[in-house]
Amino acid sequence: MSATPFIQFLGPTNLEGYDRKLPASEQPNNIPKTFVDAMEVREAVFVKEQGVPLENEFDSDDTRACHWVIYASVNEMTEPEVKDDDGNILRRKRSRTTSQPIGTIRLVPFPHPPHPEPGSSYQADALETAPKPDSTNPPPYIVDRATTYHDGIEPYIKLGRLAVIEECRGAGISKLLAGAAMSWAQQNPSYFNPSIATVGMENVGASSTEEIPVWRGLMCVHAQEQVASLWAKWGFKIDEGMGTWNEEGIKHVGMFQRLKTVNDIAPTTI
After folding, report:
1. What segment(s) does the record annotate as region Disordered (predicted)?
2. Is the dihedral of CA 124, 129, 135, 138 positive or negative?
3. How far is residue 83's CA from residue 79's CA, in Å, rounded to a whole number?
4. Which domains does the chain have, with CATH numbers?
5. Among 20, 18, 19, CA closest to 53
6. Interatomic CA distance for residues 69 and 83, integer angstroms
7. Residue 203, number of CB atoms within 10 A of its CB
């Protein structure tokens, strides 16, 4: 792996034609390579290692989300060195450098389905009230149940699908990905705010301009319980009011953090 992995960003993208039942390597050519690479990593980690069904890994949030993929430069030998009987080199070894996707993360904008019910079980993170996986429509704006760090109303964005291939773990790749996504959100706080002229107030759950949803730094993760301590190192706090639930048989907890954005004069706390 190269000493300095590099990260590629992909904003919300039309993924029409993506076949949830096929692996990333068999998707049509119109699907952006960055997204195919993200899915390659997710399949390696969530499908092959953790047993999530392939068709559940791609969901309706992928189209509206931002994705980050981190790559390592890998040197591959294409032709071996050739020597004669006396040890003289007849042909030198030839190699090429390729970029291998080794990790990914995504950032899903608001609105979101309701918070999972404590003690419940779901397929992947697609709740029963969420749109069908093939749908391109986001969930409706709702008033959710209040939890420890979320009042049920304030818009939040959600980090998820953090995955690093097995051979590259322990090298700080997860931290680089999470840091890139959080830094981007801090620098682009209005990116996901709805355009009322385009969407219409009636479609964002607002009856006045004061009620128009605006992101103010609140970020959530649905973390596998076994890696909650990792998210805690990056500033997230477990939301006890959300309880725990199972996604594909894996226990999850909700965690929140409020980021300081370029719009803030001083940092705030949740």
Report:
1. 104-140
2. negative
3. 13
4. 6-258 (3.40.630.30)
5. 20
6. 41
7. 12
